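About this split. The held-out portion is used to measure sequence recovery: a designer receives only the structure tokens and must propose an amino acid at every position. Recovery is the fraction of positions where the proposal matches the reference. Here is one held-out target exactly as it appears in the evaluation file.
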């Protein structure tokens, strides 16, 4: 149970920091058009995590099932979250490269995703079919 509580706490802190630090650049919807005021956030928690809100939700959700000692739902959550986040991050990464070009490609080298099996998504991975 302690590991579950720790995962929940780390996840919530990461997600809250992501929302606070990105401010108006944070949205729950994928942006398909770059707004005039859209900037690439690479400081604060974003200096270490490329998608800190997704990282936070992933570990928060997994932590809830660990805390509840619910292995069947934990497996279900992990499978569903992996599918959701791998698809969503792939789509967002392509858009961010389109919006910010080399600036985003350089950022990819410095900040990681830290979600299992999605951690080191790069431009080469993005060009492969889903």
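Reference sequence for scoring:
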């Amino acid at each position: 149970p302690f590991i579950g509580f720790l995962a929940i706490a780390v996840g919530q802190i990461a997600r809250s920091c992501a929302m606070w630090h990105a401010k108006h650049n944070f949205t729950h919807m994928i942006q398909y058009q770059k707004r005039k005021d859209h900037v690439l956030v690479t400081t604060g928690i974003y200096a270490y995590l490329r998608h800190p809100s997704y990282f936070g939700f992933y570990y928060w959700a997994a932590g809830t099932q660990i805390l509840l000692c619910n292995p069947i739902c934990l497996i279900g959550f992990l499978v569903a979250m992996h599918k959701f986040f791998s698809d969503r991050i792939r789509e967002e990464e392509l858009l961010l490269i389109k919006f910010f070009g080399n600036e985003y490609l350089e950022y990819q080298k410095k900040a990681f995703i830290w979600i299992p099996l999605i951690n080191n998504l790069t431009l080469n991975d993005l060009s492969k079919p889903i």
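Annotator remark: The mean pLDDT is 90.
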